[in-house]
Amino acid sequence: MSIFEYNGSALVAMVGKNCFAIASDRRLGVQLQTIATDFQKIYQIHDRLFLGLSGLGTDAQTLYQRLVFRHKLYQLREERDMKPETFASLVSALLYEKRFGPYFCQPVIAGLGDEDKPFICTMDSIGAKELAKDFVVAGTASESLYGACESMFKPDMEPEELFETVSQALLSSVDRDCLSGWGGHVYVVTPTEVKERILKGRMD
Amino acid sequence: MSKLDFDVPAKGGFSFDLCKRNDMLMKKGVQPPSYRKTGTTIVGLIFQDGVILGADTRATEGPIVCDKNCEKIHYMAPNIYCCGAGTAADTEAVTDMVSSQLQLHRYHTGRESRVITALTLLKSHLFNYQGYVQAALVLGGVDVTGPHLHTIYPHGSTDTLPFATMGSGSLAAMAVFESKYHEGLTRDEGIKLVTEAICSGIFNDLGSGSNVDVCVITKGHKEYLRNHLLPNPRSYVSAKGFSFSKKTEVLLTKVTPLKEKVEIIQAGEAMEE
Q1: Tens digit of pLDDT for each residue in B205-229?
Q2: ipTM value of the model?
Q3: Does A132 contact B67 at a Cβ distance shorter than 8 Å?
């Protein structure tokens, strides 16, 4: 059994026209037993920056707390929010520091950078950044997510269409994965607002 | 106060805090995760005016392609570039670190960096970690002493060669080089040969794929040809795209408007005595 299959997760982030969407499933399990159906995997770092953490739940929460600490220090020193690219480098450095005893987490970072340009990025558990221009996926359902996103993605989608695409990709992929599911949690972020939606999915 | 020191940004280097816990998990039968590798075909050759480096653009995570267009030719100095194969995090981290060290060295000496400096910094770091930092590199550049091309293995050994290949596709690429390389290649011949070698890796090796990146370095000038060749275009995309007939069922919607960014225009007033 792989350590990533202990809790189970599915995360996806997609780029649209001046907006982005980040979505996760809601299950927390201990191997094959489900113990929570409203587990939060996507955290908001600041107004326009979201972080999703897949993999081992305890490492995800610890890593999130460390990152919030570093970001708050940054805000105090620089008197502004961190840019998504900078935050991605911070996460990568924090993960690589533990190269020979890593956190069992795969982060997905999504944010709006300068001039409202959407930025998405994912990393493996030791901080190898993958900057994509279309979509990034992570979690136990990642193989299905790759397939679903590859076929459903279109460049320059408007927020409503982007939401529909991300939701369909997420729900169809978690349906084929035992360890993730129990609904979905989708954030669609545009320069003016953040829309958070909870999806109804199969409860098995 | 000592508890606080623990979390404050460390002085750098690796931290082995979680090793004991991870070891315990492994003994309980939990498999360690697989890291992102850059299966890869990376090549370099010396032509009459300088060095040409080439790389494919596929990054794999086990059998899955996780990045179809990643960058494997890393910047080290304005006149030195390095291609990386092996564990992606290791190649990125080690080339970034040596690139910063070279920049500091440039400030310190006031001179252009030499390829041999980058080579020594890389090999001593890799040897220090006895091969655990899995980065296999092809380092090339042009400095005051001329064009140089080196290969660096994960354990820290190096070779200085007129043409070199590394990665899982290295045998496929080396076959092309061995048959067609000769001294005194022109720029166009060199680029053509490098592209052919990378294509040989892309089509014959499963760990390499997607596009060809080329970097040409000559005295005082460099050209980074990102995606120089795209032999694997996505030609099966349906023009009308995906359309969903049934809308997703939503249980709850929460809209948070983002704060409007306020711009303060100072109306300058002359200071009174």
Answers
A1: 988 988 999 999 999 899 999 999 8
A2: 0.87
A3: yes
Q: Cα B12 to chain center, whole Å?
A: 21
In this complex, the residue of B7, B22, B59 whose CB is nearest that of residue A66 is B7
User: What does the block give as tokens for B57?
Assistant: 């653009």
Q: Is A155 on the interface with B (CB under 8 A)?
A: no
For residue B65, which phi and psi values (nearest 5 degrees)?
-85, 115
Query: Which stretches within chain B are classed as H helix?
Result: 2-5, 19-27, 88-109, 115-128, 170-180, 187-204
Buried residues in A70-105 as b, exposed as e (16+ CB within 10 A): bbeebeeeeeebbbbbbbbbbbbebbbbbbebbbbb
Distances (CA, A) of A93 to A77, A191, B22, B90, B199: 19, 28, 20, 11, 33
Determine contact, residues A132/A108, Cβ cutoff 8 Å. Answer: no
The reply to whether A170 touches chain B by the CB within 8 Å rule is no
pLDDT in tens, B122-138: 999 999 999 999 999 99
Model-level pTM greater than 0.90? no
Task: Tell me the C-alpha distance between B132 and A154, whole Å.
Answer: 41
CB atoms within 10 A of CB B228: 18
The DSSP output letter for A115 is G
